[in-house]
What does this fold into?
Amino acid sequence: MFTGLIEAIGEARAVRRAGSEATLTLQVPSFFSDCRPGDSIAVDGVCLTITGIRGNLLDLDLSRETLERSTLKELKAGGVVNLERAMRLSDRLGGHLVSGHVDGTGVLKGIKREGRSWLIQINIDPSLSRYLIEKGSIAVDGISLTITSCSDNSFSVAIIPETTRQTTLLRKKVGDTVNVEIDMISKYIEKLISEKQGAKPKEPRSSIDKDMLRRYGFGEDHGNF
It folds into this structure.
């Protein structure tokens, strides 16, 4: 489990393909020296297992599922990625709960300067957009961010100067792809309420709306929305 607070930027030293899978070698900072084989690490928001350590180099296996679902299939030697070690139970949860199980990819639609910060718009598949709400949390390339606005096929996030310094996000350009992990809590809520209503488990659209939430005890009189 991760928090979405990026600890460092790593560099891909080698990507070795083997059929539908691959092995990635990353160069990491010296303070990652507490990593051990078998530990989990988030690479651009994708949870991977460390299989080998040689000094500041980490070896990680990439499964077919990982390559098909994430931007790691595009990673080449020399590319840079966001890194976060798995959280400890004693850590402060400064971002939000991030599993490292990417739901899909998005495409950068716009990057706009706003004062000292940046506003980034990302297009995503409509099947994921139903889980998004304004001021909700989302992980983009492993970065815990707050949604400023959302529509049926896109969302926007504000990037503060500290995030631009500590992550790779502004090294991307319009048209580039990013990994997206939606807030896992929204998926649990949808499943629990859909089952209670007798809905089929794979509905194309969510049945969650304000009227439905009011019926289950959420409403303006309780300060929920």
Observations:
- The two ends are 28 Å apart (CA to CA).
- The chain has two domains: 8-85, 104-184.
- The CA atoms of residues 164 and 170 lie 6 Å apart.
